[in-house]
Structures are given as C-alpha cells and as structure tokens.
Amino acid sequence: MSWPLLFLAGLLEIAWAIGLQYSDGFSKPVPTVGTAIAMILSLILLARAIRELPIGTAYAVWTGIGAVGTALLGIVLFDEPVTAARLAFISLIVVGIAGLHSVSTVH
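Structure tokens predicted for Quaternary ammonium compound-resistance protein SugE:
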C-alpha cells in the first residue's frame, strides 16, 4: 500500500507546484487555497508511505514524480521550451524512479 500512497503524494506535489504558478505569489485566493491543500495532503501521504519505505527512496521518488510531472506540465501549460536534451533528462528521472521501485523490498 505504501507505493500507491507515494505515487498519489507525488501527483499532489505536481498539483501544488503548478498551483504555485497559478496563485501568482499567493495573491489569488482560490489557487492559493488549492495549493495549500495539495501541499498538506502530499506531505501526509508521504509521511504514511515512509512507514514502510526507506525515507531516502520515498523522498527521491516523491520529488522525482513531482519534478517530471511539473516539467511536463510546464511545457504543456506554460509554453516552456521543449528540447531533445530536456526530454532526455526528464526521461532519466523516470528511469531513476523505476529503478528505485524495482530494487525496493516493499512492493
């Protein structure tokens, strides 16, 4: 159960990272509240996941999911640059996440 919780925590990390952009420096109330809720829920789920997963693995996966999702949504939503190198490095993060999952003793 810890891996699904960690995955959901990572998705919520993406939500709050994107929410930061939409909150415009916390000056817009609705995106600010959504961002805060996503932050809190993400941390709660991360805390639950580390009951069974090593903190180093869980934290690396959590931030990796957040980094990949935020980078991809930055491309889609905010017209951030798309280059072969950028996509390759994002792919390396995905490989790292998959690798950490594959060597984890808790599946």
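The chain has one domain: 2-103.
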